[in-house]
Amino acid sequence: MNKISIIGAGNVGATAAFILANKELGDIVMVDIVQDMPRGKGLDMSEASPVQQYDSQITGTNDYAEIADSNVVIVTSGLPRRPGMSREDLLQKNADIVGSVTEQIAKYAPHAIIIMVTNPLDIITYHAWKVSGFPSNRVMGQAGILDSARFRYFIAVELGVSVEDISTLVLGGYGDTMVPLPRYTSVAGIPLTELMSEETIAQLIERTRHGGGEIVELLKTGSAFYAPASAIAQMVETIIKDKKRILPCSAYLTGQYGIDDVYIGVPIKLGIGGVEEIIELQLTESELAALQKSASVYREGISFLGYRNSSRAVRK
Ligand SMILES: NC(=O)c1ccc[n+]([C@@H]2O[C@H](COP(=O)([O-])OP(=O)(O)OC[C@H]3O[C@@H](n4cnc5c(N)ncnc54)[C@H](O)[C@@H]3O)[C@@H](O)[C@H]2O)c1
Fold first, then answer.
1. β-bridge pairing 27-31 and 3-7
2. Is the Cβ–Cβ distance between 30 and 3 less than 8 Å?
């Protein structure tokens, strides 16, 4: 049986656990710093299993020893931004949390593939990779699948067609610097540009760009978790079943797209080996410039965390 561990049993972590259990992708361990809460959630999900008909074992715990020998570890532990907190404060606090969490992962699950979720995603993923000492193919971040899912959903609603027929890629950083690619978007193989005006596409891109903020405004407290958890589950399934799907994920670049030593959202081939290949698309000048701009923003965040040994984020 595969073993999947999730650090942080909050909204995203617990929802991901429930989806993964329903898909019977493996036994699941949820770890959180809050006493007893993960045990409560684990027990609740276990009690759902006879009705939902899954045999995955779900354990909630405060003890990292329970993640031993996990195939995949998902990290969702972190704080949300609070009023009065600067972006730098949040970055530092979440880097501290993820740093200590990653040390535990490296100790107890040294062969695992790590999927980072905690924000700010791409910078925190870089930090986790450094702390873990793992090869970069075994540390990646989730962002692009969620952004692409939002774009796909908006397109499906606009055209009145099934979400299943929409295929797209959203690259770049998570948040304002994402790079949606309408040129690589199709509906049952028909290019999006043949089905919608440029103006409508631009509106849907804008909504996608602010997709996270739209949910935050509606929820009042907390941020999106159903769609993020679904995106995580898709990555886990792809890895565990070695499906070798091409998915947009935050991956470590070593010169692809003229970008070096940064984690950023690009299409990858995902399989049992983690990031098995980074796919280099033929981007237009403006698409490439947008991706490289994302990289520059992340370079600043990485430097803020004290990683100064390379200033090669974007090659001139
Ligand atoms: N990458 C994405 O697509 C994406 C999408 C949504 C949310 N997020 C991010 O994921 C993170 C979690 O979001 P959420 O909505 O689940 O938040 P949440 O507050 O519901 O859950 C976070 C959990 O982390 C736990 N935690 C804090 N410090 C810990 C530690 N040291 N060890 C173990 N657990 C610890 C908390 O107790 C809490 O249960 C946030 O950083 C959020 O911004 C990312």
1. parallel
2. no
Q: What percent of the chain has pLDDT over 90?
A: 88
Supply the residue whose CA is at minimum distance from atom 10 of ligand 1: 118
Ligand 1 atom 26, closest CA: 77
Ligand 1 site, CB within 6 A:
7-13, 31-34, 76-78, 80, 97, 101, 117-119, 121, 142-143, 146, 174, 222-225, 228
pLDDT tens column, 17-59: 999 999 999 999 999 999 999 999 999 999 999 999 999 999 9
Q: Which atom of ligand 1 is nearest to the CA of 34?
A: 37
Residue type present at position 142: Q
Each residue's pLDDT tens digit, 94-133: 999 999 999 999 999 999 999 999 999 999 999 999 999 9
Would you call the peptide bond into 83 cis, given omega within 30 degrees of 0 as the criterion? no
Q: Are 4 and 25 in contact (CB under 8 A)?
A: yes
Residue 225 Cα to ligand 1 midpoint, Å, equals 10
